Amino acid sequence: MNTSEDEVIARLRGIARxxxxxxxxxxxxxxxxxxxxxxxxxxxxLSSDWFIEGIHFxxxxxxxxxxxxxxxxxxxxxxxxxxxxxRCLLLNLALxxxxxxxxxxxxxxxxxxxxxxxxxxxxxxxxxxRRDILINVTVVGEIRKTLxxxRxxxxxxxxxxxxxxxxxxxxxxxxxxxxxxxPLRTTSALRKHLYPEPRVLLGKWLAEHRLATAMMDLSxxxxxxxxxxxxxxxxxxxxxxxxxxxxQLSAGTGKWKFKNLDPVALALNGGDDYELxxxxxxxxxxxxxxxxxxxxxxxxxxxxxxxxxxxxxxNGEAVELQPRxxxxxxxxxx
Amino acid sequence: MNTSEDEVIARLRGIARxxxxxxxxxxxxxxxxxxxxxxxxxxxxLSSDWFIEGIHFxxxxxxxxxxxxxxxxxxxxxxxxxxxxxRCLLLNLALxxxxxxxxxxxxxxxxxxxxxxxxxxxxxxxxxxRRDILINVTVVGEIRKTLxxxRxxxxxxxxxxxxxxxxxxxxxxxxxxxxxxxPLRTTSALRKHLYPEPRVLLGKWLAEHRLATAMMDLSxxxxxxxxxxxxxxxxxxxxxxxxxxxxQLSAGTGKWKFKNLDPVALALNGGDDYELxxxxxxxxxxxxxxxxxxxxxxxxxxxxxxxxxxxxxxNGEAVELQPRxxxxxxxxxx
Lengths: 334, 334
Hints:
2 copies of one chain form a homodimer.
Chain A: H1 5-18, E1 25-27, E2 34-36, E3 42-52, H2 64-80, E4 85-95, H3 102-117, E5 122-129, E6 134-144, E7 159-163, H4 168-179, H5 188-194, H6 200-208, E8 214-218, H7 222-233, E9 236-240, H8 263-269, E10 275-280, E11 291-292, E12 295-304, E13 309-312, E14 318-320
Parallel strand pairs in A: 4-5, 9-13
Antiparallel strand pairs in A: 1-2, 3-6, 4-6, 7-10, 7-12, 8-10, 9-12, 11-12, 13-14
């Protein structure tokens, strides 16, 4: 029996209702559009993200529950990167007709957990049928006027920080790929690859304390994303390999060897971390805590006037830092 | 030479800048998210729409300029269907690397014309590489509080109206398919298929005059969409085949014969019209003009207490009206 579009929509509507409190969503799934009541004195933050089978996830490697969590988590990360609070989401889903029942149920269960945890109810979207699984998530967030943190505010002398660890999600993907049919121990790297935690609280905290001059989230890899932040701000940067919160290859990788994985290269070029990269004026650095609600904040370098990107290697040598993160239009470059 | 994601984004940024006045868009393409300043006393309307090669358009049949226009026009139609005013859009684009130059340029040109005509500048989105062309458009609109027109407000006795013609876009598609390599005369049916005009002004007018009790746009076909409006309102409907503003098969179809096309069937089940379907309390029907700014408004039937859908055929016979419009999950049913 075929499922009709209206039946798929009915399933989504179930999720929307049972999700987080509707909050400012005045009209949800089932009409031509959703209606959202903006908060006075706030600006609206809008972000969309693709999550496509064969690019961002694999039908065989990734459980539908993780796909549901992560497609929302990455979009929420963009709201976090502005310092905003998520308010609601639009889910755009194209599915094979074989995936409108069990797969959809598990997918929606992962999505719902992220939606509840971050207070971001499902408000609308569009569904269609397709041989591949295509997902596009739009998240609407809010922030008090003048508080949003852009990429373009970094100034020479600012300290560069990252949250959490960088490169760990890429290590998690490597672990998952090598695991094949063997049961895989849940490690923090694997969790980070499958169920990343957008840094919403940290982003809000930095915005409310007006501590960060520039901020963005790390989705394509530190080397690529840092170069974007520097381009937007018209500055350069120098970071120190020794200070990078790189993943520990010994911890949690179990019996697999990672001879060709270098922690510094992972930290510089591994994508999908959804950590925050932000800059803080030098005199305010002491106000940045070592950890915020369990999330480590690490000072990894400085913004420079000179527009180049430099890396001080583990040997103490200063070299040019090349953007070698993820670029969907140059997939073979990695 | 490969195009990088940053180059594609630079092209989009060019469009965003040269587009309609930025209006309430405070921060556009190039940051983690867009920032939008909502108008006081207004609610935000949010709508997303897929536009996918092989489902909604064909790379060989449809010029990129028309793809650019139509992907935005259909999303704007959802804003029109609430009575709202479009404010900005997020464009999500997945393209083959062969399409990041000429095809993208023409696509963006069509998108820009729609964006300028309807005052809806490009504010953000996401791009990636893919063998197929995948488009998802999110449009943000606004409407004064309490004015939004939902699907659920129709009451027994209300008159049912449609704008423009119904079934004409499907006729345009048939014309385009039969034209093959012969040059095709531009007919209104073809224009309607390639460059539909979302009824934004009509939607606003109906909302501001508080004339419509329920409204939606016709995207999947009158029979299917009317059944959705009736479901949402908990009512039924009776419409008259003789009153449907069906396409004229003789006019503009040139030398091609359409023996198997029936105007009434086209009007009932043809999709992609992006006209408005709305209901008006009986005593207010005289206040609905015959045309509004050149767009015909036709009274096609009545809402009934009985929850069934009925059609009075051209022979005057009352039959059950089956929803036979477009359903992506039952594509073979059409």
